[in-house]
UniProtKB/TrEMBL annotation:
Reaction(s) catalysed by this chain's protein: phytol + CTP = phytyl phosphate + CDP + H(+)
Pathway where this protein functions: Cofactor biosynthesis; tocopherol biosynthesis
UniProt keyword list: Chloroplast, Kinase, Membrane, Metal-binding, Plastid, Transferase, Transit peptide, Transmembrane, Transmembrane helix, Zinc, Zinc-finger
Name listed for the protein in its UniProt record: phytol kinase
Domain MYND-type: 361-403
Domain of life: Eukaryota
Family statement drawn from the similarity comment of this UniProt entry: Belongs to the polyprenol kinase family.
Organism from which the protein derives: Mycena venus
GO MF annotation: an example: phytol kinase activity
Class of this enzyme: transferase
Main localization, broad class: membrane
Catalytic activity, EC: 2.7.1.182
Keyword ATP-binding: no
């Protein structure tokens, strides 16, 4: 049967596919030599000759077969030129085979990861096809194909972004943004369900990188080019492009995952361009980005470093100096000034961060490097400077109760949630800095709270999400949305309150 299929028998080829991939009675390796024969470039008809129907039909079937098994290591470089040559013929001369573009993307996904980027980036015109496939996915109906495209985009180093954009976007003076919108539609649709590598944090970051590389980067470049244009008036088009840029960024479940790459791609430059008075239609969106999204994200160390570096970039600073006279008279000047000061101040804190631990015995105030402390071997959460402090906290500091909560995973207040160690060290340093800076105002509010509710405890909330940054003192005797949320977080909150009362 395999010999007959290799010699051109369409029916035997179909039967062989069935027993391999449906009945699973033979190894997939048996079909690879047949695919090689059917995709022989020498069999591609020329313009002058009548297309041999059997050869074309076999080639189309071979392509549909190829994306089922993983291509064996080392064969991709030899097999892919055959795939690409036949695809170009079918795409040009057999337009009714509309599914061939999707088939090509699926075949590309089956290339070995270690050779995928090299082979695909060397194939001129491939990413133009991917761009067209993206356009066909805008209705969100072909979820299976969308997953293949997503898997491809997050596992290759795309060097031919121009081709990808060329696949769907008209000249940049028109900026229809069709490709970007199409990508946005299905990427956000699959953001919660895509399981590319089985590791949610890494998968989310790779998805974010794909969105930036495919959608944000060309858009940033387009905004910059348009900003240099005067005929026709680029204002409305820039406003449209900037609005879509924000739509992409806001759509991310965790926006901070996409910001580092977006900043590297030119986000600060886009902000400076869209902050000009002549583009006043963008100002409301711009203020929202600065105050409610970028400012809170400065609590993540990687985002803060990128913002700080971008603002110190010589080219960008020259741009800001040119725009400064106009910005002073703009309605976003206050928001921009606040943001610059925030990044500058927090970057200074980050540069001075020295990771330290503090003894968890509430009667001890020793603070030192982490290696100076011993971790509780049961909960692996609390640290002590000595056995004496650990014993004291076990009996007098209620660690006996807290240890059980931590050990059984019943805690959410200190859950890491994809935070890096650098993030946690910086957040503690920022909290310590802000407490010292505002301690007199905090003490005043605490006194008022104690006078109003002398028999109840109190707690301080440092709000780094809202803009501007805020500090509030709450009484445990007064119901509030903050207190309700903390109580719903689990037993850890009750343990924290009990331990604080003993401190």
């Amino acid at each position: 049967m395999a010999t007959a299929a290799a010699n051109g028998s369409f029916q035997d080829f179909k039967r062989l596919r069935q027993i391999i991939f449906i009945e699973k009675s033979h190894s997939p390796d048996a079909v690879l030599p047949i695919i090689y024969r059917c995709l022989d470039p020498q069999k591609i008809p020329t313009v002058d000759e009548a297309a041999p129907r059997n050869a074309v039909t076999l080639a189309a079937l071979a392509l549909r077969t190829l994306f089922i098994p993983i291509i064996p290591a080392g064969t991709g470089s030899d097999l892919w030129p055959r795939v690409w040559a036949w695809f170009r013929f079918l795409d040009t001369h057999r337009p009714k085979l509309t599914e061939m573009k999707g088939v090509l993307v699926k075949c590309a996904c089956r290339l070995r990861p270690e050779e995928r980027s090299r082979i695909l980036n060397a194939t001129q015109g491939f990413y133009t096809v991917v761009g067209r496939v993206l356009g066909s996915l805008a209705d969100g109906t072909d979820v299976g194909l969308a997953r293949f495209v997503m898997a491809l985009l997050v596992t290759v180093d795309i060097s031919n972004l121009e081709e990808l954009v060329e696949g769907k976007i008209p000249p940049i003076t028109e900026l229809h943004l069709d490709l970007l919108r199409d990508f946005f539609v299905f990427a956000t649709r699959l953001a919660k369900t895509a399981d590319i590598d089985g590791d949610p944090p890494n998968s989310a970051r790779r998805l974010a990188k794909a969105i930036v590389e495919v959608a944000v980067k060309p858009l940033m470049h387009t905004l910059y080019i348009l900003s240099l244009s005067t005929d026709p008036d680029p204002g409305p088009v820039i406003n449209k492009g900037f609005s879509f840029l924000l739509q992409v960024l806001y759509s991310m479940p965790k926006m901070y995952t996409v910001l580092p790459t977006a900043i590297d791609t030119g986000l600060i430059g886009a902000i400076s361009l869209c902050g000009r008075p002549s583009l006043s239609e963008t100002h409301n969106n711009l203020k929202s980005l600065l105050l409610h999204h970028l400012s809170p994200s400065t609590m993540y160390a990687e985002v803060l470093w990128r913002l700080s570096d971008a603002l110190q970039n010589a080219h960008l600073m020259e741009m800001f100096e040119l725009l400064a006279p106009e910005l002073k008279n703009s309605d976003i000047a206050e928001s921009w000034t606040h943001f610059i000061m925030l990044v500058t101040n927090r970057a200074e804190i980050l540069r001075q961060v020295v990771p330290k631990k503090m003894c968890d015995n509430l009667a001890c105030s020793k603070k030192d490097v982490k290696d100076a402390f011993q971790m509780c071997s049961k909960c692996r959460h609390s640290y002590y400077c000595s056995k004496e402090c650990q014993n004291a906290d076990w009996h007098a500091g209620s660690h006996k109760t807290a240890c059980s909560v931590y050990r059984h995973g019943e805690h959410t207040l200190t859950e890491r949630r994809h935070l890096t160690k650098r993030d946690r060290d910086f957040m503690r340093a920022a909290l310590d800095h802000d407490f010292r800076k505002y301690k007199h105002q905090i003490y005043d509010e605490i006194v008022k709270c104690i006078i109003a509710h002398p028999d109840a405890g109190w707690f301080v909330v440092f709000d780094y999400v809202s803009a501007p940054f805020g500090i509030e003192v709450h009484s445990l005797a007064v119901e509030s949305s903050v207190l309700e949320k903390l109580r719903q977080s689990g037993p850890e909150w009750e343990v924290t309150v009990a331990r604080a009362a003993r401190s």
